[in-house]
Amino acid sequence: MRYLTFALAKGRLAKSAMDILEHVGITCEEMKDPDTRKLIFTNEEQHVRFFLAKPSDVPTYVEYGAADIGIVGKDTLLEEKRALYEVYDLGIGRCRMCVAGPKQAAEKLQHHELIRVASKYPNIAKDYFYNKKHQTVEIIKLNGSVELAPIVGLAEVIVDIVETGTTLKENGLEVLEEIVPLSARIVVNQVSMKMENERIMTLIRDIRQYQESQNA
Ligand code: PRP
Predict the structure, then answer these.
(1) Which residues of the chain have pLDDT under 50?
(2) Do domains 4-93+183-215 and 95-181 have the same CATH topology?
(3) Of 75, 148, 163, 168, best ligand 1 pocket probe by most atoms within 8 Å of the beta carbon
(4) Of 190, 184, 196, whose CA–CA distance to 48 is shortest?
(5) pTM higher than 0.90
(6) Residues with CB under 6 A from ligand 1
C-alpha cells in the first residue's frame, strides 16, 4: 500500500484537525511530542505520513503532489488559487474575511474613493475591490498585525480575518463590510484523487459520519 501524505497548516488548525483524524482512526503518536524538531511523522501500520507547513505553503505541496491531502483554511485557498480539489468543509476554525477600519472610513467605501487597503491577503482584497465592488484601490501587502495599518495611517482600511472581533474592538476598529465566511477545508491533489480514490473517499465519509454523530 502506498503512503498517503497529509499536509497540515501549522497553528490553531492543526490540533483540531489531528483530533478529528484520531476519531476516525488515523493516529500519529510521535507527532504529539511537544519538544520534537522532526518535520515529518509516519504511521507505518496505517501507511500515512503527516507534516506541518506554513498555511500558505499547504496548497503548493498539494498541487504538486508532495502531499496527497491538505487541511487548510479557505482564506489560504482563496489567496493562493492553486489547482486542487476542495472536497470537504470541516467546519472548524470558523471566521470571516472582512473589510475593517475606523467607523469614518465607511463613507470612503461607498463613494468609490481611491483608498489604500492593507492586507495579508492581497489577492482576496484585489478580487473583492476590483471585481465585486468595481472600486480602484491601492493594495499594500503586510505580513501580520494588519490592524496597525489604519491606526498609524498606512491605509484607510484593511482586509483581514475576524474571528471574535476582539482585535478590532481593542484597537478602535470595526467591521465595515463582510467579504466571505471561512473555515478549514480538506483539499486533495488531482492525481491522488484518481489513484487513491477509495481510501480518500472512505476517509471523507468517516469524517462526515463522525461529525454528524457529534452534532446529533
Ligand atoms: C488573526 C487576524 C486578526 C485576528 C482576528 O491574526 O489576522 O488579527 O486573528 O481574531 P479576533 O477577531 O478573534 O480578534 P493572527 O492571530 O493569526 O496573527 P497576525 O495578526 O499575525 O495575522
Answers:
(1) none
(2) yes
(3) 163
(4) 196
(5) yes
(6) 120, 144-147, 160-167
